[in-house]
Amino acid sequence: MTHPISWDDARAAVHGAARPTSSRPVPLAEADGAVLATPLVTLTALPAFDTSSVDGYAIAGPAPWRLVGQVLAGDASEITVTPGTAVEIATGAMVPVGTEHVIRSENSEVENGAWVTAALPDKQEWRQTGEEAAAGEVLLPPGVRVTPGVLALAAACGHDVLSVRRRPRVAVVVFGDELLDSGPPGAGRVRDALGPSLPGWIRRLGAEVVGVTRAADTLEAHETAVREAAATADVVFTTGGTMHGPVDHLHPTLSALGGEYVVDTVAVRPGFPMLTATLPGPGAGWLVGLPGNPQSAVIGVVTLAAPLLAGLSGSPLPPLSSVVLANDVPGRGKDTHLALARLTPDGAVTLPHAGSAMLRGVAGADGFVIVRPGDNALAGTKADFVPMPT
């Protein structure tokens, strides 16, 4: 077994080696959750014309103002406001030429339906052309994930389609003759917890799951399963078999298929061992080998899967956040310790049931507190935090 690399180096190595998937234009309705392949640029100034912020009157000159017309949202009015006149205006309507002020309707009085009087406003009540963005301005760089807010912005500045990265395709292969697909565990058999849960984690990271299969604990079955999965996906995720025991066939499978390691074991606890490798030939370019213990596998997801899928999507390395600790968190010697934690108003609270095979802590956690090698994190201090995929 090679010497494990640090947790931080593993994340950076996987992300740095990934090459983004191809890009394609899609209608706005299909872009949610995808990643921008090109900058989002305004096709027009925002707003594209002077726009009233209120319902009221566009006026010029001193009061009183003779009411001469009306302009509603959507009108391309040719009315000109001249000194001594007023034009009734709706919120969102185009401000007429010649307007000096827009006064709110609730601050105005109209006599005989013809004359408007009001005190002049203290502030401008309309949005000027280009106030939010100039035409051609870059609003968002490539690599940003498309959210409903991004879609709204794209529509507002005139886009009908967006150029986005194709979602990475992922196939999951679950190893382990001891695993049950249904019913309660017993008599040496345990339920498969990763086959049902990994697709959810992967989708939350922006990828498309194209299949979940099981493979028997033989070298031939491992090779066949990985080869078939690789033909349909950009990334093959496997669970279990990452050690060198009598039924751990992942390393021999990679050797037989011509795989090349990018990360071979990471100095992290829980989570040891995990790996990533590239696969030759057509089909999938990557394999991520996750440990068989469920919590260790989730740590493999935040350690290797999240950076890899971000790189394939053209996104930056997922950033870590900072939290204040509500309790002491011990280190793990020369390894990085990822401690399950829930975020509370009092700070990050580490959780019980945090063994590598346990899932109660995973089910209630917001993410992991990070304690670097040779360190202990004390209550009241800040620590890095890696969130669960959301």
Automatic annotation (TrEMBL):
Query: PANTHER family of this UniProt entry?
Result: GEPHYRIN, MOLYBDOPTERIN BIOSYNTHESIS PROTEIN
Question: What is the role of this chain?
Answer: Catalyzes the insertion of molybdate into adenylated molybdopterin with the concomitant release of AMP.
List UniProt keywords, sorted A-Z: Magnesium, Metal-binding, Molybdenum, Molybdenum cofactor biosynthesis, Transferase
Query: Does this UniProt record's set of keywords contain Protein biosynthesis?
Result: no
Q: Tell me which Pfam families the record gives.
A: MoCF_biosynth, MoeA_C, MoeA_N
Q: Which residues form the MoaB/Mog domain?
A: 171-311
Which EC number(s) does UniProt give? 2.10.1.1
Which GO terms of the molecular function aspect are on file?
metal ion binding; molybdopterin molybdotransferase activity
Q: Where does this protein act, in terms of pathway? A: Cofactor biosynthesis; molybdopterin biosynthesis
Listed GO cellular component terms?
cytosol
Tell me the protein family, please: Belongs to the MoeA family.
**Catalytic activities:** adenylyl-molybdopterin + molybdate = Mo-molybdopterin + AMP + H(+)
Q: What's the protein called, per UniProt?
A: Molybdopterin molybdenumtransferase
In the record, biological process GO terms are: Mo-molybdopterin cofactor biosynthetic process
The record, for InterPro entries, names:
MoaB/Mog-like_dom_sf, MoaB/Mog_dom, MoeA-like, MoeA_C_domain_IV, MoeA_C_domain_IV_sf, MoeA_linker/N, MoeA_linker/N_sf
Needed cofactors, names only, are: Mg(2+)
